[in-house]
Design brief:
Blueprint: E1 7-11, E2 27-31, H1 32-39, E3 43-45, E4 51-53, H2 55-59, H3 64-69, H4 90-102
Antiparallel strand pairs: 1-2, 3-4
The chain binds zinc ion.
The site of zinc ion has 6 residues, from strand 2 and helix 1.
């Protein structure tokens, strides 16, 4: 879903929090657009690695950037790193996803 040249390492649990480990499993490779969208709870990722777009964003009408950049992600699965040991932690995703649900 992301342009390789624009990739950031996004934290599932932010750095400044006690649980915000700089571990591989606390990371998501997201481009700058989706990193910002994830950090501001416009998109959420469920513990089973499915992307959800916030309800109001999903129904907003604002042209092709929104349609392809965000709305089209709804219901898509994220790609996993090759090694299962590096997959994003489902516990941390769950923790973060609960917050996403609270913003919707
Ligand atoms: Zn992206």
């Amino acid at each position: 879903m992301c342009q390789r040249q624009l990739l950031d390492a996004a934290h599932i649990i932010p750095d400044m929090e006690a649980r915000g480990d700089p571990a591989v499993r606390n990371g998501l490779a997201l481009c700058k657009l989706h990193h910002a969208a994830f950090d501001s709870f416009m998109i959420g990722i469920s513990p089973d690695y499915e992307v959800f777009v916030r309800e109001d964003i999903l129904h907003e009408e604002d042209g092709p950037m929104l349609v392809h950049g965000l709305q089209g992600l709804h219901g898509q699965a994220i790609l996993h790193p090759g090694r299962e040991a590096d997959w994003p932690s489902q516990d941390w995703l769950e923790f973060r996803y609960q917050r996403f649900l609270q913003t919707t």
